[in-house]
Request: fold
Amino acid sequence: MFIETIDKYASGRVCLYSFCFSMSVYLLIVLYSIPLVSGYAQEMMLFDMLPTGYTYDYAVSLLSQLGTEGRGLYLSLQLPLDLVYPLSFGISHAWIICWLLGKAGTTSRLASYACLLPVAGCLLDYSENIAIFSMLTSYPGITESDVQLSSTFTIFKSFFVTITYVVICGLLVLTTARKMRAKKN
Reply:
């Protein structure tokens, strides 16, 4: 049902507008909230920016380095923005994949499941955010299992986001090749 709904609304205009909205939120995060929060972390990267995960020692060190003000800013600025972005990413990129599948002439039911890749990234991003929220609010009482769970969500989110972009690039190549073949005929 989800794939059919996404397919129903997937048009070039919808893809463009939703992508622009999603990237606007992303740019707000990357250019505003992350630098602001990172200012408290000195040279350390925030959890969201570590696609290969992090250790317990790193998490404790980061949370300590952020201090009360930095952790408060993470909670009040970064995480609220990161509640909007995953949904906008998941929907816009599902639309893009669905639309490109149509443009590439791919009608396989199996291929249409590629639309679920950004949705998986979205759900994992929310899971990561919940885990980070938990660490921020329970610090200094975080456990190794808290960090391991959060880090695992970060790694899998990064994987699904990367695969989403690989699929989009592949579909762009297929679509371009199809258009070039059509021009030759």
Observations:
- The chain has one domain: 2-174.
- The mean pLDDT is 93.
- The helical segments are 2-9, 12-38, 56-103, 109-112, 116-138, 144-184.
